[in-house]
Specification:
The structure holds two protein chains of two kinds. Chain A has no helices and ten strands. Chain A is mainly β. Chain A has strands at 3-7, 10-14, 19-26, 32-38, 44-49, 56-58, 61-66, 71-76, 85-92, 104-109. In chain B, the strands form two sheets. In chain B, strands 2, 4, 5, 6, 9, 10 and 11 form a seven-stranded mixed beta sheet that branches. Chain B has a four-stranded antiparallel beta sheet with strand order 1-3-8-7, with no helix packed on it. By secondary structure, chain B is mainly β. Helices cover 0% and strands 53% of the residues of chain B. Chain B has strands spanning 4-7, 10-13, 19-25, 31-38, 42-49, 56-57, 64-68, 74-78, 87-94, 101-103, 107-111. The chains are: A mainly beta, B mainly beta. The A-B interface holds A 31-32, 34, 36, 41-45, 48, 50, 88, 90, 92, 94, 96-98, 100-103 and B 31, 33, 35, 40-45, 48, 50, 56, 58-59, 90, 98-106.
């Protein structure tokens, strides 16, 4: 059975800290992995990863995939209060079925 | 360019009532999806439509029906609502050339 585990479940940090969020997966016929940020509304797309070892960056956020060890990490440097959200990862097998994790809830204190 | 839109934003139903959630996208995407999101459960796929004219069951289809009206629109119908269907419902769409999904703003449904 396909599954994804995100850790930690929740995290509280102070502004300026760096955080690392983890996503481990077991998916048949893995094709890609997506990261989303969800505040009090719809998930918004952050990254799509398909290749191992290639870091994707967007401002203070970056992510990398390890297809051998079956995990991905999302890093956020110099955190801001606006980064407070639930971060979701979703491995995808290419058959229209995305397996969403339950997310990591990040709270950044001023 | 509105992306993915959903109506209504909020709805309260009594057990046994029916309703249809509407979803439309203006990104010319082929695939569309309906998810429900419950606390501690993550997003679960109800139904999806790979292309206009096709629909398929996802992980939790019981109690729901869908219609892919045209390329833009994908509706979700609850024929006889139950309290277990209280949830936040998200519609999403995705293109052929990318694995990325884009989500609508969601509908918060409460069934009493």
């Amino acid at each position: 059975e396909d599954k994804v585990v995100q850790s930690p479940l929740s995290l509280v940090v102070h502004e300026g800290d760096t955080v690392t969020l983890n996503c481990s997966y077991e998916v048949t016929n893995f094709r890609s992995l997506l990261w989303y940020k969800q505040e009090k509304k719809a998930p918004t797309f952050l990254f799509m990863l398909t290749s191992s070892g290639i870091e994707k960056k967007s401002g203070r956020l970056s992510s990398i995939l390890d297809k051998k060890e079956l995990f991905s990490i999302l890093n956020i440097t110099a955190t801001q209060t606006g980064d407070s959200a639930v971060y979701l990862c979703a491995p995808y097998s290419g058959t229209y079925k995305y397996i969403f994790g339950t997310g990591t809830r990040l709270k950044v204190l001023a | 360019n509105a992306g993915v839109t959903q109506t209504p934003k909020f709805q309260v139903l009594k057990t046994g009532q029916s309703m249809t959630l509407q979803c439309a996208q203006d990104m010319n995407h082929n695939s569309m999806y309906w998810y429900r999101q419950d606390p501690g459960m993550g997003l679960r796929l109800i139904y999806y439509s790979a292309s206009e004219g096709t629909t398929d069951k996802g992980e939790v289809p019981n109690g729901y029906n869908v219609s892919r009206l045209n390329k833009r629109e994908f509706s979700l119908r609850l024929e006889s609502a139950a309290p277990s269907q209280t949830s936040v419902y998200f519609c999403a769409s995705g293109g052929l050339a990318t694995d990325t999904q884009y989500f609508g703003p969601g509908t918060r449904l409460t069934v009493l």
